[in-house]
Amino acid sequence: MSATQRAGWSRLPLRAAAFVALTCATILGVSGWREWTARDAVLKDAELEMANVARSLTQHAEDSLDLLDSGVVGVVSRLEMDGTAPVTIAKLRILLDARKKAIARIHSLAIIDDQGNWLTSPGTIGATLSDGAFFRYHQLSPKREAHVGRPVKSLLDGEWVVTLSRRFSKQDGSFGGVVVATISSKYLSHFYEQFEIGRNSSVSLAHGDGLIVARIPSNETFVGRSVADKPLFREPSLQRPSGAYHFTSPLDGAERVSFFNRSNRFPLLLLATVDKDELLAPWRAAAISRMLYVLALVMLIAVIGGVLVRQLQRGQRMAVALAETEAHFRLLAEGSSDMVTRIGLDEQLRYVSPSSARVVGWRPNQLIGSPALAGVNPEDLPEVQAIVDAMKRGEREEARLTYRNQHRQNGEIWLESTMRVTRRDDGRVDGVVAISRDITEHKKLETRLETLAIEDSLTGLANRRRFDERLKEEWARAYRDRSSLGLLMIDVDHFKAYNDEYGHPAGDACLRLIAKIIAAEAQRASDLAARYGGEEFAMLLPNIDAAGCARVGERIRSAIHEAGLAHGSNPAAGCVTASLGGAVCRPAFERTAGVAALVEAADQALYAAKAAGRNRLLMSGEVMDLLPKASGQ
Length: 633
Prior knowledge:
By secondary structure, this protein is an alpha+beta fold. The protein has helices spanning 3-82, 86-102, 133-140, 185-192, 219-222, 231-234, 276-312, 316-333, 356-359, 364-367, 381-392, 440-454, 464-481, 495-502, 504-520, 546-562, 595-611; strands spanning 108-113, 147-153, 160-169, 175-184, 202-207, 212-216, 242-248, 255-262, 268-275, 339-343, 349-352, 398-407, 411-423, 429-438, 485-492, 528-533, 536-542, 578-585, 617-619. Residues 122-126 and 622-633 have low confidence and may be disordered.
C-alpha cells in the first residue's frame, strides 16, 4: 500500500466523523426547513380555501342581486309600456307581493313615482328606508342600468338592507320614477353561517364605499359600520380585484389570514378570513413532536456514528466497486430528461434522477427513501400496486402504465411509466427500475378533443351527436326499467327575422342566453339540454310524467319571455319568445316503436304550438300511442 493510500486510510475515521456531524446538522436543517415549508403550506392552503369561499360567496351575492334585478326589469318594462295608472299599479302590487313571498331572499319590492311618492303600500316597502340616495341618483342620472346602493336601515322592521334600483321613463323619455328591490343583511349572514371554515373565522360583505353589508359572526354588531379608512380600501397595493391578505382585524383585534374578492359587476367586496393562531395550532403541535423525534434520531446517529466508522475500512473495497457500477447507471439516468427511479423490494425509492425536480417537483434527496407509490392517485393505485406486486414476484418482466400522480406545485399530473425488473446474479428479483415522463398536456389535449366531439361550440350545450347518443341510451334504460321518457323540442320564434334585423352577432348572443335558460332547468344528473340545430333546442327528461314535462317546458318558455330581449319582428310579444312541443312515452309499452317516434311526436306538438300563435307549449299526451300496442298489454 502506498503512502498516499495509507494517509487516506488514516484520515478516514476523521472524515467519517465529520460526515456524521454534517449529516446531523443537515437533518436538523432539512427538518427545520420542512417544518417551515409545512407552515407555509398550511397558510397557502388556508389562502386557497378562503379564495374558494370568497369567490363562491361573491357569486352568491351577484346571483342574489341578479335575481332582484330580473324582477325589477320586468316591472320597469311594464311601467314604461302601461304607465303608472292606478289599475296598472294595483296589478303590479299583486305581482310584487307574490314575488316577495315566493323568493325568500327578496326583502321588499316597491315603485316610486317621479315626485318621490311611494306608489306601493307600506306593507310592501312604503317610506320605510332611512336613506333615499338611490332615488336621488336616478333622478339626476339618465343611466338605465341597475344601481346598487349603500346598506340602509328599514324603518318598518329595523333590518339592514341593500337596495337595487332602476329608473323607468315616461313615454316622452323623461324621468318617470324608480323601481327598487332590497335584500336583507340578515339573509346574507344566515347564508354565510353554512360555511364552517374555522371556530374564529369570519366572512364580511362590504359595499364599495366601505360600509359593512353583512358579517358572520356578530352581524348585528358590525352591519352598517364603515371600514373605509382601513388598508383594504385605501392601500394602493390592495386595490386589485382579488388576493390574499394577512392583517390584524380592526373589528375584533385577531390576526387573520384572509382572501378578498371584489365583484366585477357590483360595488361589493367579499372578505373571508380565518384566525391565524387557530390555523397554525395543529401544525405547531405536530412540528414540536416531529422535531423532538428528529433530535432523538440525531442523537442516535451521533452515538452509533463511531461504531459505523469502524466498519468503513472493512467495506471500503466493496463500496468502491459498487460506486463504479452506480456511476455507469447514474451517467445514463442523470442525462435523461425522463425521471429514472429504482424501487426496492420494500417499495422504497433507492435512486431518483435529477429530472424528478422537473417531472414531479421534488428533488431526488427529498424522494429517496420514501414510498415509491405515495403520490399515486387513490383511484389508480390498485392497478399500479398490482403490477408492481406481479413484478416483485417475477411474474412480469416489464410493464408500461399511465396513471395520475401528485406534483409538488402543480397539483395532479399524468405520468407514463415504463418498468423493468432487475435481478441479482443468482436470478432473484431485487427491485424495479421505472422511467417516467409527464404526459399531462397530452391528456389535456385528449380530453379537449373528446369535449369538442360532444359539445356545441356556440352555446356550450350538448351537440346533436351527443343528443342522439343519449336518446338511444335513455330509451334503452327506460325500456329496461319500465319507466317513462320525456322530450321537449324548443324553437325560437321568428329567429331568422331577428338575425336579419339585429345581425348575426346579436343572434349568437340570443342563442347563448336561451341556452343558459334551458341549461338551468337540467337540474337532475340524467337531464340533458342540447342544441338540436340552428335555433332549435331539445331537452331530454328521463323518468318524468307529462305534467312534470309540461312544468319544465312552461318554466323555460316563461323565463325566455321574461328575459325581455327586444325583438321588433315578433309583434305579438315585442321580445324574444319560444314555442315548445313536448312528448312523454313509456318504451316498455311501445315495443314496436323507436326513438324517432318520440322525436316526431314532440316535433308535431312543436309545429302545433307554432300554428296556434307561438310563444306557447303544447304536449302530445301523457303516454303516447306511438304504434298499436302488442296484444294483451
